Write the structure tokens for this entry.
Amino acid sequence: MANSTIIVDFSSMSDWLTSLAYGKKAGAASKNSLKTDASFTPENHSYRVSYEDTEHMVYAWAATGEKNVSIQAIYNQVFSGSLYHGKKKTVDLPSGAASGTLLNRLLMKENPVAGTVTIRLTKEENGVTFYQDYVTRFDRTLTLKDMTAQCDGAAAALEKEDGTKGFTPSVKTYSVTVSMAAQNLELFLSRYEENTCYGEENVGYRIRVDGTDVTAEGGVVIPLDGTINTQTVTVTVENNKAPDGTGTYTLNILKSPPVEVTFETEPVDALLHLRDVLTGVQQLPDDAGNYLLCEGSSYSYALTKYGYEAVSGTLTVTRDGAGALVISNGTETYPVTDHRLDAESGGGQPRHRPVDPGAVGGFPRFFHQ
């Protein structure tokens, strides 16, 4: 009827949806593994889910107690090619099913583009179609692809708060232990670059270290201050397509204090000269004859005494696979403990060789005070 208005009163219509959940897998155990920003209630028709960009699989569960009501998930697909990207997809959701229903191509892995799904409940009565919509937006939380570290040219292991080693994109807090004498820590940082969706020129991730953009460099050199104090570095990963999804990583650089080491030589009055290989600074003992050596550092040594042939080499203070403090001369490794080491003849430790072939050489021995 022209120029007329039909008023329909829906005030008495109840909300039909009785449950709604999302998960990363189809099994019942995964139901609600993707948390909405608010617990589901029938009267609330709008939700958000924060989902890390390393994942992309979404399964949906929905149920209604209303008779003759169908449930569908409706969304625009995200894809690398024009075949699917941007095209509407409709998926039937069986009410009250034990297993979740896959919402294929709602999101892309390692890509920050969000996805929005409408859960539509439809009912026909007397030739009239009624429907109710529940909308959920899946925002992406951003992660680094990888982060590794080197200290003065040697690999430095990242450690999580639970004590495990190595980088995991979803874990945001790490520590790395270096020598107090170390000069620099080099961070190598990588981002996701390959999975562009159709129409994108690039994925668009940016990496900052303490606020400075290091995306192009792929890493940064952190100067160390030479003190025992912990230094903290903040790494962020950003993307204009996910302005609220910035990922923040914290790296605590822990410093190992100097190790007090005593060397015993035969003859006992031989002179030991130690120099830091990196700085060239001579290391002098205290009044008790103890040297302060830094973990992770290498020292050139020369052992001399009149009438003996001098011996020289390099010692490195490090840790073995079990985390125990050791000193290595390149061929042999000796634990640094509270007890003197027994030196076996020919054991490969630095030693004097006397000019007199009848004399017996001596071995430096190490122990930690």
